Input
Amino acid sequence: MPDQSISNVEDLELALSEPTPAVVDLFRQMEGDLLILGVGGKMGPTLARMAQRANQAAGTKRRIVGISRFGSGDLQHRLNQWGIETIASDLLDEQQLRKLPDASNIVYMAGMKFGSSGNEPLTWAMNAYLPGMVCRRYPQSRIAAFSTGNIYGLLPIHYGGSMETDPLNPTGDYAMSCLGRERIFEHFAKANNQPISLIRLNYACELRYGVLVDMARKVWQGQPIDLAMGNFNVIWQGDANAMSLLTLLTAASPAAVLNVAGPEIMSVRRVCEQYSRLMNKPVQFIGQEAADALLSNGQLGHRLFGYPRISVNQIILWIADWVMHGGSDLGKPTHFETRNGKF
Output
């Protein structure tokens, strides 16, 4: 891993897709092909590339296939260049879903968050109906399914983050539909005796996207920082990729739940003040920190799979350098300050 700066997209994507020794061991042990449903999202490309790199390092031969609509851009070509097979498919179309290849292992990344407000029917179809379609199509496959820490709801900061066994209190159609996703996977895990893991992610970050990027760009551009959601978790996307792939090992029936989150509870105010010093820019705050926030406790994942390789402070340094030198942005703000569940 580079230390103080990452200067270009290729180096960034190499860092995000570097497999850990544990992921390489996973691919030595794992039997069968791997299908990644919804590979076109923010995490999908580097997770798929990590899987392919681990597969090569393990010296094993299996198909790694990424599925997405691939409506625009060069992602399909880039994935192919990395040695990942691709299939353009609308997963909500049952005929197209039936035509997908069989696979013993599935990473389920399909879903809808941004744009869910005002488009609630599609949000529920993608987040809660599609999982049942997939489980009917792949009743014997091992599935690692992405969920979100948003389903916990707001928790007092002094609790130290929601744990996997805590009650769920989703707010808004996005979080409620994600709980629906989990319930459908839980049903089929029992009905099919199917090994499934549910990955409650909160939040993955790289240099082009994430809550830390949103804050850095606002400080750099002189925009005010809303303190209402005053605290958050964050984890380097490369570490989230590795942990998520490793949940294929812990998939079980009944479904196994795991928070994928960084170890610290971060302060929006403190992080933005750090950016202010690094960038030599003034920072302006509006509002006051609430006593609660969307926070996850990631200790179980750290015990199972190890501590994140990249510290939050290192990510902050990389992002500050990236932003100040005009690094690219995915143009997808996280809306981390949202407290009413409307995305």
Summary: The longest helix spans residues 172-191. Residues 121 and 173 are 9 Å apart (CA to CA).
